[in-house]
Amino acid sequence: MQARLARLHGQGDLRVEVVDVAEPGDGEVLLRMAAGGICGSDLHYYQDGGFGPVRVREPIVPGHEASGHIAAFGPNVSGLALGDLVAVNPSQPCGNCRFCREGLAIHCLNMQFMGSAMRVPHAQGMFRDWLVVPAIQCMPAGTLVGAGEAACAEPLAVCLHAVAQAGDIRGKHVLVTGAGPIGALVVAAVRHAGAGTIVVTDLADAALERASACGATRVINVRRDPEQLAAYDADKGQFDIVFECSAAEPALRSAIATVRPRGLIVQVGVTGDITFPLNALVGKELRLIGSQRFDSEFPLAVGLIADRRIDVRPIISHTFPVDQAVDAFEQASDRSAACKVQLSFLA
Ligand code: ZN
To answer: Residues 158-195: pLDDT tens digits?
Structure first.
């Protein structure tokens, strides 16, 4: 049997190719893939050949946000049925290293994260129409939601992990800077967690409309109306918690200015080196913590999507058949119109 896949051979060189598909082995399943979302990191691989120290050094199949249907089993698989829609957890920690043994699999020294160029050889990803994968990475997504929604489990898991860094946020005043796919899903996650107010900033109205659909109580276009955000500087800052999802230096500066003394800033967006006012961090006794990927939040995300306790549909802006993968990546590059762009493998 043969499969189509989208493979990146270098910066700007994405090709749809045909390869042979293996039989599922012990503990594995064969998935008929259905949907796969393009993430910012996939886009950086395509546009820039990588980000920071992570470079595409050999051909890589991108894609770490995907869903599919169970098409066949290898030996020794239980708990899954033929035809089940599943979200695929792309995270493959080793289970044996120092951090895995400490219960910190997220920091595994030998992490294989599907579709990541962080390690060499690169971990191959899921932009393909057939995939053989360990059954343990497949989480059933029920029958209510579509494959595109199920494929949002991975980015939602990232957001649930970020929100978990903040502890109990019921009734808290929250600022989310940056309303791309992650910012919008952080909004959905903090709303689900019971935040009191959720103010969201971005430079694009289309992104802010999606944030509203995800549960923002107020949105501010900081390109057009920067004074509306600056008003939250009053009395040493108004927000209890900021989720910084833009990785833009001005956004981090505004986070530091608008968060209250002893408040918390969770840095979710990633970029290269930037500067920020250390004096304000010290003077306001702020906590600034990073959050990356997810751990136990993946099955939680699948469950929340499966019964639409968190409705991820507002973030899915475009869907392209896999044969148009290049068009999909180009569309995803246009932030004025695109949020989550997905590939469909069923066409
Ligand atoms: Zn490990």
So the answer is: 999 999 999 999 999 999 999 999 999 999 999 999 99
Q: Is the pTM of this model over 0.70?
A: yes
Residue 52 CA to ligand 1 center (angstroms) comes to: 23
In the reported structure, the alpha carbon of residue 102 is separated from the centroid of ligand 1 by a whole-number distance in angstroms of 9
Distance 114 CA to ligand 1 centre (A): 15
Query: Is 298 contained in some domain?
Result: no
Task: Please provide the DSSP assignment of 300-326 as one string.
Answer: HHHHHHHTTSS--GGGEEEEEEGGGHH
Q: What is the pLDDT of residues 96-137, one digit of tens each?
A: 999 999 999 999 999 999 999 999 999 999 999 999 999 999
CATH assignment of the domain containing 135 = 3.90.180.10
Distances from the Cα of 232 to the Cα of 100, 252, 253, angstroms = 41, 14, 13
Cα(23) to ligand 1 centroid in Å equals: 27
What's the pLDDT tens digit per position in 57-79?
999 999 999 999 999 999 999 99
Residue for token pair 């089940």:
84
Between the CA of 197 and the centroid of ligand 1 the distance, in Å, is 38
User: Can you give the CATH number for the domain in which 283 is found?
Assistant: 3.40.50.720
- Domain containing 217 equals 163-290
Distance 281 CA to ligand 1 centre (A): 33
**Do 247 and 330 lie in a common domain?**
no
State residue 135 phi and psi, 5-degree precision.
-60, -30
Instruction: Note the pLDDT tens digit of each residue in 263-317.
Output: 999 999 988 889 999 999 999 999 999 999 999 999 999 999 999 999 999 999 9
Distance from Cα 93 to the centre of ligand 1, integer Å:
5
31: CA distance to ligand 1 center in Å? 26
Task: Kindly list the distances between the CA atom of residue 9 and the CA atoms of 20, 45, 118, 200, in Å, as whole numbers in the listed order.
Answer: 18, 10, 16, 37
**What is the 165 CA–ligand 1 centroid distance (Å)?**
22
Distance 103 CA to ligand 1 centre (A): 9
